[in-house]
Design brief:
CATH class of the largest domain: Alpha Beta
CATH superfamily of the largest domain: Methylesterase CheB, C-terminal domain
CATH architecture of the largest domain: 3-Layer(aba) Sandwich
Low-confidence stretches: 139-151
Largest sheet: 7 strands, parallel
Mean pLDDT: 90
Structural class: alpha/beta
Strand order of the largest sheet: 8-10-7-6-13-14-15
Helix content: 25-40%
């Protein structure tokens, strides 16, 4: 970031939304240096003003948000926060934008926009500031992002304990989670639970993407769901996922509407703590990129229960918040680049063959 006060370009085809977003960001300590009504104007504004962050609408006339993201990342790489409709269709296009290089997204409320958006002002400002701090000039945190359907699977020699693997992720995380889950061999027999900070309209689509990108059978969790070896669950947006029971090679979960933790629901701490209390077999906790402290206490609980904890390193994290906090708590066994996490999981669960 070029200074203490982040500089932003706001892109939206609605004059009302451009004005409201600009006012919110200005009030929150973000300097809006330009606005744009479509993707072509957005690219020009980025080239002219060299901002620290762009808030990008998806649906715009002429040049839309997806094309604008692609052009900005090719011509003048800049951290981009997508503003997405809270719909399934909006989720699909948003994931495409993340693939093209956008860092994160923020969902626009429906209905009475001005009232609902005002209530989300603090969240928006916090996210814009976090995204503004991301270094997209290098390729570390976006390295080897797979084209859909081409994710390679890690195959390491050896036999593995059928561990329960808990993955916590937030800002910058979806593409990293896809690479991690997509690289794990099904024959390792893991039971995987993913807690990605994401709204309810997005988690089902995210589960579908993980299912398509991996050898595992992945679905959005439902209350009372059970998974066995070779299966994975994604915590649904707006609900906590609790590991409620474990026996044999299966894990049972329940969903709750308990208050948010760290301002988020689902919270990885809830899932990790419950797994540490419930699962008798081997446990692996993974804390990936994201702002805030969620996952740190849960990682410590996993470690205290005898499990193994991996944190993503700073250079490959879009936002080194959650992993850093877990490391500071002394809860982490390995600090690895995002693309090395799958091998880290395999190494932690490889069975030793005694002569």
């Amino acid at each position: 970031m070029t200074g203490a006060v982040p500089r932003a370009v706001v892109v939206d085809d609605s004059h009302f939304m451009r004005t409201m977003l600009s006012d919110m960001l200005d009030d929150g300590g973000v300097d809006v240096v330009a606005t744009a009504a479509d993707g072509a104007e957005a690219v020009s504004a980025v080239l002219e003003h060299d901002p620290d962050v762009v808030t990008m609408d998806l649906e715009m006339p002429n040049v839309g948000g997806l094309e604008a993201v692609e052009r900005i990342m090719a011509e003048h790489p800049t951290p981009i926060l997508m503003l997405s409709a809270h719909t399934a269709d909006g989720a699909d296009v948003t994931f495409e934008a993340l693939e093209k290089g956008a860092v994160d997204f923020f969902t626009k409320p429906g209905g009475e926009v001005s009232t609902q958006m005002s209530s989300m002002e603090d969240q928006l400002v916090e996210k814009v500031k976090a995204v503004a701090g991301v270094d997209v000039g290098g390729s570390d945190h976006r390295s080897s992002t797979s084209e859909q359907g081409t994710t390679s699977t890690t195959h390491s020699d050896g036999d593995y304990e059928g561990a329960t693997v808990l993955i916590a992720s937030s800002t910058g995380g979806p593409t990293v989670v896809e690479r991690v889950v997509g690289a794990l061999p099904r024959d390792a027999g893991y039971r995987i639970i993913v807690v990605q900070h994401m709204p309810d309209a997005f988690t089902e689509r995210f589960a579908d993407r993980l299912d398509a990108a991996s050898e595992y059978d992945v679905r959005e969790a439902t209350d009372g769901d059970r998974i066995g070896a070779g299966e994975a669950l994604v915590a649904p947006g707006g609900r906590h996922l609790v590991v409620a029971g474990a026996g044999g090679d299966r894990v049972r979960v329940k969903l709750t509407d308990d208050p948010p933790e760290h301002g988020v629901r689902p919270a990885a701490d809830v899932t990790m703590r419950s797994a540490a209390e419930t699962v008798d077999g081997p446990l692996v906790g993974v804390v990936l990129t994201g702002m805030g402290a969620d996952g740190a206490e849960g990682a410590r609980a996993i470690g205290e229960a005898g499990g193994h904890v991996i944190a993503q390193d700073e250079s490959s994290s879009a936002v080194f918040g959650m992993p850093k906090r877990a490391i500071e708590l002394g809860a982490v066994d390995d600090v690895l680049a995002g693309d090395d996490v799958p091998d880290g999981i395999l190494d932690a669960t490889r069975l030793e063959v005694n002569a």
